[in-house]
Each structure stands twice: as C-alpha cells, then as structure tokens.
From TrEMBL:
Record keywords: Hydrolase, Signal
Keyword Signal part of the UniProt annotation: yes
InterPro entries from the UniProt entry: GH, GH44_cat, Glyco_hydro_b
Protein name: Glycoside hydrolase family 44 protein
Annotated Pfam families: Glyco_hydro_44 (PF12891)
Glycoside hydrolase family 44 catalytic domain mapped to chain residues: 308-526
SUPFAM superfamilies from the UniProt entry: (Trans)glycosidases
Domain of life: Eukaryota
Signal peptide: 1-19
Gene3D superfamilies with a match to the protein in the record: Galactose-binding lectin, Glycosidases, Golgi alpha-mannosidase II
Length: 743
C-alpha cells in the first residue's frame, strides 16, 4: 500500500469516528438542530438563569414540549449531557423518530438525578445503555428528536449546554447494599468491583459472607445485582455494610407478627392481570398479561370497515387510523400470545368515516379555545370561555351512521372471536367526550336501551362471548347520570348501577338468555395524586384500602361533595359494595374493573400500589381487571405484573388466609399468599420508608425463588433462588415489593 493510499484510508476511518455534538450552547441551536416543540413559550437567550451567557427558558402547557430535531439520527452516540433547572416532578424526557413516529420509553426527569431543582442548574448525563429509572438500554430506532415534555400540570424550566456524547466512562462502584429475606444482603454495583472488600456487621458483630450469587436482568443488563448469603440470620438491631466507598447502616425494626393459614382458601381469578392495549406478544409474555382490552374513548367511534376512529375530546375530535390496527388482526395476535381478548362494540349512532376528517374546522368555527399544534385548522370544540361550540357540527363531516345491523355485519365476519365484548366505553359521558355526535346528556333510559340492543345482538352473533357493561367512568356516575339527580328521582330514587343491574336482569328474562355476564366499572383513585412529595406518596399508598376496607374513609374525598353520593356512609368499600349490589339486583353477574391506575406510573410508589391492588383483587374476588393502559414493562407498574405473573412464574390460583397482628397494618405493608401445585407463594409490599421485619408463621423454610423491585436496589427485575432459613424474621427493604415461591 502506498503512503498516499494509507493516508486516504486513515482519513476515511477518522471521518467515521464521531465526536461530541453540540445541540444548544449559549443562545442558539447548533449543527442544524431545529425546534419542533409544541404549545411551549421558549426564550432561546434567557438571562434570568444560565451557566454561560444565556439559556433556554421554556413554559410548556400540559403534555407540551421542547422538541429538538436533528438533521440526522442520534445513532452512534453514547449519551446525552445537559444542564437543567426544573421541578423534576413536572417533566419527562423521551426520544422520537420522525420516520415512523415511534417513541422511546419515557425517562422521568426525577429519575435522572435527585439534585435537580428549579432554582439552579444541575449537570446530568443520560447514558443510552442504561436509561433511568429501569437501567434498560435505549430501544433501537431511528431517533432524531429529543423531547423534554411537561406532564399533566404543565412545566416551567431552563435548559443549557445540551450535547450528545460519543463515550461515557463507567467507574467501578458499589451503588447500594440492603438486607433482604432472612439472611441476605442485596448489593448493586456498576463496573467490575471487588466483593472481598465487603464487610457486614450486625449489632456490632462481624457476620461472614458464605455465598455470592450475581443476577443480570435480561432486559436491563446495567442493573446487575449480587446476593451475599450471610452465615447467620438477620435479627432486629443495627446492620452496617461497608463496601468500597459505600458505607450504609440500617435499623432492623422490631418484628411484626402474622400468620398464613393454607387450609382457608379462596379462588383467585387469573383474569385480574390484564392491561389495555398491550404493545406486543413479548410484552404479554414478559408481564404475564392474561387478558387484553381494546378500550378507551377512541373506540366509541371505531369503524371496523375502514379501521378508522376518532380521538374525541382527547385530541381535537380528529379522525385517525385505528390505534390497534384492524380489530380482527388484533384479536388474533393477542390470543396467539396467550391472552384473552376484550373487544369494545361502539354503541352511539356514528363512527369515523376516514382517517383525516375532523369535527371543528377553524374555517367554520374560528372562535375556539385551542387548535391542534400539528393541524391548525382542527379545534377543540370549546369557546374561549370553556363552553361548547355552537351550533353542533354536522356529524356527516367526520362520521358515517352506525347501528346494530352494522355491528352485526362486523362481528359475524370476524375470523378471530373475542372472549369478551364490552358495550361501548364510558357512554354515560358521551355528551362531553363525544359532544360532536352526542351533544345531549345521556340518561338512564337511553343508556339502558343502547346496552340492551347491542348486548342482544352480540349474544346472537357471538354466543360464547361474555358481555360486560356499562363501563362506567367514575364513582359519581355509579349513582346518577349526566342528566343529574332529576334522573334518579324519575326512577324511584334508585341509584344508577343498582337500577341498571335490575333492568338488565329483567331484559335477560324477556330475551330468554343472560344479556349481562359482567358488571364493568372504571375506578381511579381520587383526586389525581400525580404530585410526588412525601405526603402524596404516603396517601397514594394508603388509598388502596378504599377497595376493601369498610373502616377506611378515603382521605382524598374528605370534605368533598362526592361523599354525599356514597349510599352507605363515607367509606368507598368498592369491591364488597359492588358485590352486594350484584347479589341484590342480578345474582350471578361477575365483577370487572376494566380501567384503573396507580396515579404514578413512573414512581416506585406507583409500582407498590399496583402490586398491592393485584393482591387485593385476588383476595376480594374481582373477576376481571385491566390496567389503563399499557405500563412500561421495565417501569414500576410493569414490574408489579412481572412480580405476580412474569415469564412463566405464577403467584398461584388459590388464595390462602393471611392474618396480621398489627392494627392498620395496611397503611404501611400488605401481605398476600397463594398456592398452586402444592407450592406456596407470598407477596409482601413494604410501603414504608424503612425496612420491614415480619414473623410469618406457617411459612416453611427451604428453597424459594425470590423476586423483588424497589428500595435502594432500584427498579429492575431482580430475582434469585435463595434459602429461607427462618420465617421468624423476614426482612423487606423500604419501598419494596417482594415475592417468594417455593421451588
């Protein structure tokens, strides 16, 4: 090779080596980057807060963003570095592809660094090989947009010195060490560390480490964990662990007492582990999703003959291609993945006619509150004062007629049959969500008429499918209609759900067949507890008691007029109350909760709430439940599903009795137990900010599969096979969901 050829080759290689790329420095975007943000007021040269001469100042509406668009993709870069001043609870970061409009998992800004605050800049690095909070690598994609997005309350924030990095150096380090089970220390690390440096003392006495087991979660390899088996079991007192630069101390608390009685049992429905809109077959299998729902506001206007739908007031009353593609195809792959399918049948009079039309064009209704930032002609159907735009739009502008005949044609032609059909979604509030096609308030009688007509048709076409209705949106509408309490008065002062159950029983008798198999409701903890301060977290964790506890007055409703609509006092007592209504008005009907949520999907407390609720659903006999909507498989809520059902490990189908000695124990921890195939499983949720020590009598010693997430170890799919040497003091770290199953 000639010298000239060698130099050319060397230069060609050098040209392929990326260097760090500036996106924003001081007062301008660099290197061809553009702002594609929406609903955000931006000052690119703000001087009120800056690292250098100026910074980006942004004020974003709810769910709006500073969106930075690259002229190419960010492939080949190792991470993102930036300075930020913000309330971390108000923002999230994600990456987006212009080519196919896909987006990455969301990264809560609060998960990046605890030092982030609104009054001064914090320099942070987001490692693309280990995105917080899960530690999962950035998904493969043609990412060319970086979005700093406000959450539901909007956000004011500053950004500066935004830069893509070509390399990130990971320094070997011990990250955390905490006690778990009866005689283990769980240690998380980064890089290659030396475990011979670990020293453990319990009540000032050195404890030897007799075994070391390391586990690497398959989808978050950066979050490896090592379990140190101790020579003696844990007891109350002071535990210290020193490892490298890490030194931690724990006060192991006084023991809490409980017992498990395997002779007292109750069946657990496998269909309580459902979600709405699972994104893939692998998602279903990783999380153990047993039932999948095609639901939400948009399905009310789903046109199966073109696979179009309308976003309703969720997004400017615009038509679009169906979120789930073709319903028949969706049912097919859902069932092939091992999940049952729940299909929603539209029950209003109109469905979307195409994927492009919309109800409130600016050319006809110029005086509207907001317009779509991506389609300036599509309005939100509200005047600036918040009242509905008048006159009501011509439904033919965006829709075509729909009735039971059309629905019959659709369902008859399905190659893949769903196990469940739902009669529309939250139809009682159609006068709001779908004001463009149903502007009048929905009454008792109209809702019943629609439910009966579509249920009869569904039972004729799909005789093996279970019918669920009315998919009522919230507590208020369990008891009345959008017409108001004059509607109750007109129906002998009977609240809506008991009236509906009795009327469906009567209609079933007339039809000669059961028309309602499941009473379906939606339940969201009230109010929205998206705030992330300590008080909100503690309240969020206590509120699961509203599902079952007759002695718990839901604190979020204290002083609210909602209390006035609780028929039997201040306690919500949701599951037993609904079962009483069923037994009194249409015995044999089962209970479905097809929408519920943790109120904080990205926070560890959201995962703990979810794990607690899944245990409660099993214990108190909910028959079907689906989360709204499809939580991140690597996030706290997704991990709660994995804890119970993920990757072929099952909690159990027969619940066994758990007795706890501590009054109001449910405020700080929950314990659930089940058996299947002669194997005992126990789930413990520690809702407290300090470790929990439990004496659980009748839990055998021996070999167990351990799963857990949360605590100092963080949010990842941690598991190992351990030996439980004693059930007299089982330690669960703070803010941790813990699962053991006999092997």
């Amino acid at each position: 090779m000639s010298l000239r050829t060698a130099l050319v080759a060397l230069l060609a290689v050098a040209a392929l080596v990326k260097s760090d790329e500036d996106i924003y420095i001081d007062d301008a975007l660099s290197n061809g980057w553009q702002n594609w943000g929406w609903s955000t007021v931006i000052n690119w040269a703000a001087t009120d807060l800056a690292v250098g001469t100026s910074s980006i100042s942004a004020v974003s509406d709810a769910w709006a963003a500073v969106s930075l668009k690259s002229p190419t993709t960010i492939a080949g870069f190792a991470g993102l570095k930036f300075d930020i001043a913000a309330d971390p609870a108000q923002l999230q970061l994600y990456f987006q592809s212009t080519a196919d409009n896909t987006q990455s998992s969301n990264v809560p800004i609060s998960a990046i660094s605890a030092a982030i605050n609104p009054t001064s800049f914090t320099t942070v690095i987001v490692d693309f090989s280990a995105l917080p909070p899960s530690g999962a690598p950035l998904e493969a994609g043609t990412w060319d947009r970086i979005n700093f997005q406000a959450l539901g309350n909007g956000a004011s924030y500053h950004l500066d010195n935004i830069q893509l990095l070509t390399s990130i150096v990971v320094t070997p380090k011990f990250l955390s060490a905490e006690p778990i089970a009866s005689n283990y220390i769980a240690v998380t690390t980064q890089g290659a560390v030396n475990f011979t440096s670990v020293a453990v003392k319990l009540n000032s006495v050195a404890v030897a480490v007799t075994g070391v087991t390391t586990y690497v979660p398959p989808d978050t390899p950066s979050r490896s964990i090592t379990y140190l088996k101790l020579a003696s079991r844990l007891v109350p007192g002071t535990l210290t662990v020193a490892a490298g630069d890490l030194s931690v101390s724990y006060t192991l608390p006084t023991v809490q007492y409980g017992s498990i009685t395997t002779a007292v049992t109750t069946p657990i429905s496998p269909l309580i582990y459902g979600v709405n809109w699972p994104p893939s077959a692998s998602y279903i299998q990783q999380l153990g999703v047993t039932i999948s729902r095609w639901g939400g506001n948009a399905v009310t206007a789903y046109n199966p003959f073109g696979d179009f739908t309308n976003a309703a007031n969720d997004w400017y009353f615009e038509n679009r291609a169906s979120d789930g593609g073709k319903a028949d195809t969706w049912i097919g792959w859902i069932k092939a993945a091992g999940s049952q399918a729940m299909m929603t049948i539209p029950a209003l009079d109109w469905v979307a006619k195409d994927s492009t039309s919309y109800s409130y064009p600016k050319s006809i209704y110029p005086n509207q509150q907001k317009f779509d930032p991506y389609n300036a002609d599509a309005g939100n159907g509200l005047f600036p004062n918040g009242s509905y735009v008048q006159p009501t739009p011509d439904p033919n502008r965006a829709y075509v007629p729909w009735n039971t005949t059309a629905a019959r044609t659709w369902l008859t032609g399905l190659a893949n049959k769903p196990e469940f059909v739902f009669i529309d979604n939250e139809i009682e509030i159609a006068g709001n969500t779908h004001q463009d096609i149903h502007p009048a308030p929905m009454s008792y009688d109209e809702e019943l008429t629609r439910m009966v007509a579509y249920a009869k048709m569904a039972k004729e076409v799909l005789p093996n499918a279970k019918v669920a209705a009315p998919s009522t949106c919230s507590w208020w509408f369990y008891w009345t209609s959008a017409v108001g309490y004059t509607d109750n008065t007109a129906h002998n002062n009977v609240d809506f759900l008991p009236w509906f159950l009795a009327q469906m029983k009567s209609a079933s008798t007339t039809a000669g067949k059961r028309l309602l198999d499941y009473l379906d409701i939606h339940y969201y903890f009230q109010p929205d507890l998206s705030a992330n301060d300590d008080a909100a977290k503690a309240l969020r964790l206590r509120m699961t008691r509203s599902l079952w506890d007759p002695g718990y007055v839901d604190e979020s409703w204290a002083g609210s007029n909602v209390q006035n609509h609780q028929p039997n006092g201040a306690a919500v007592w949701l599951i037993p109350r609904m079962k009483q209504l069923i037994d009194s008005n249409y015995p044999g009907t089962k209970l479905s909760i097809s929408e519920w949520a943790s109120t904080a999907d990205g926070d560890i407390t959201g995962g703990l709430v979810t794990a607690d609720v899944l245990g409660i659903f099993g214990r108190y006999g909910v028959d079907v439940a689906t989360y709204w909507s499809n939580p991140d498989a690597k996030g706290p809520v997704g991990l709660a599903y994995w804890l119970y059902r993920g990757s072929g490990t099952y909690f159990g189908n027969t619940g066994v009795q758990v007795n706890l000695a501590t009054y109001n124990a449910a405020n700080t921890y929950g314990v659930y137990a089940a058996t299947e195939g002669g194997k005992l499983s126990v789930v413990i949720i520690n809702k407290d900010t300090k470790p929990l020590g439990l004496d659980l009598s009748n839990v055998p010693t021996g070999s167990y599969l351990l799963r857990h997430f949360g605590g100092a170890s963080g949010v990842a799919k941690y598991q190992a096979t351990i030996t439980l040497t004693s059930s007299q003091y089982i330690v669960v770290p703070a803010y941790t969901a813990f699962f053991i199953k006999q092997t």
